[in-house]
Amino acid sequence: MLDVDLMTFGYFEHVVLMIGWVVNNAIWGMLNESMMVALPFVALVLREWYLARREGEDEGNKGMLTLNRIEAGLYAMLLIFGFCAFPLMTINFQTGEYDESHWETCGTHVYEPGSSGTGSIGGKTAKAPIWWAFVHAMSHGATNAAVASLPCTPDYQYISNQLDGTRIQDPGLRRQLNEFQQWCFGLARQTFFRDNNLGGQGLTVDQALDADWIGSQYFLSTPGYYDQFYANKPKSGFPYDPGRDAGRAGTGPGQNGYPTCKEWWEAPNVGLKARLAGQVEPAVWDHINSTFGAGNAEDAAIRRVLAANPRPSQSSVVDHGSGDGAGGVAGDIASWMAGMFGLGATSLAAAPMKDIMVEALPMVQWLTLTAIVIALPFLIVFSGYSWKVAGTITFITFGTIFMTFWWELATWLDNHLTDILYQGNMDAWLAGATSGKERAVMWFVNLAMYLALPALWMGMLGWAGYKGGGYASDAIRGGQHQASEAGKQGGEKAKSKATKGKL
Question: Distance from the CA of 352 to the CA of which of 45, 328, 457, 487 falls in 20 to 30 A?
């Protein structure tokens, strides 16, 4: 027996393919022990005998004609039996390890052979026919080479996926964010509308967009907004300041004080902005800094995190200053504030669906390949060791493995399209504050790239495999026909010579 090392693109593929080949071997063993593997050969002999009988008396060369046909068909079937059906090679799967530096730079997964592998699962080893081991190795090699050829593009999708998946775990931080909305953001927005209704200076589109979230630079830097509003009660990390907190209830020297909204948001380490930034993994910040550099990327990333987290309930927005529950200032804007906890939460609702699809598609891919592997003994034997069937399965197997490239290409195109569409406004894209129309277009384009392109690819390969297998079958049938013609002519010449042309 021969041993062969085969690379897989991850542990899931490794496991399901190993199971597939173990089951494949069990099925082949059953077919072999029951002698069903010999039935196609018996069928060949009977078919050719029947065809010869149907042709009637043929100058006495019927035996030679039938023998030549059987011989030509037998050679073709034996090739399929030996290379595509009989499990000769012991397979040892090695889980590939993707080049992490390439992934961090380019966002695509290029794999390198793993340092160790296994040829067994649950104590059972697996074997594969020579041809399918070759197809596996060739398909993975071609796929990896194609993925490595993609140009490098910043991996925007990794950043967006990580930010969308970040959850604010600290309950104290969530409570303070709710309080900040009521006592800072809500009052600042009311002041903003009142000033503009009274003829205040108009804002640009960017300024108006900035004023739509709780970390607004406009509210932080413009006098009369966050510098004039205060927390509703003393906050840990903000010591008592006599010039600021004198006369306020519940505080004094050595105790916590009432920070202004500006301090509450911007204070290093203890401010809401710093605490929100701490909810994001350091590796994600490394990607953000290397991709976007200096600027407003930190604010945009925090804004996206807020958009991806659950909105506060209206019950958490209570006007403690007016004494009438949800009435007064906070009561009037409660429902509006619940929708402003980070702009874009509704528009980003489809993002998790896409992430789930991208994660699930490779699993479906390898389960499909496992089903093909398990069905191979039945397909090859029941087709009578058909070249057409073997060719079609070869192309489908290659196409299924090569779909990895199409999904990596879809990721690359997604990143490249993001760069093209938002080149001048990447902070808005990072914040999730782009228009709903643009996001809808991107969503449908992504759907086409991840689903339509692989489907088209498999359709083309299935057609090519069917045609290729058909051509091989036609060539073999042509060889059988030529062999039978040769036998026929040989028989006629022999009989003519024996009778000296008298018959």
Answer: 457
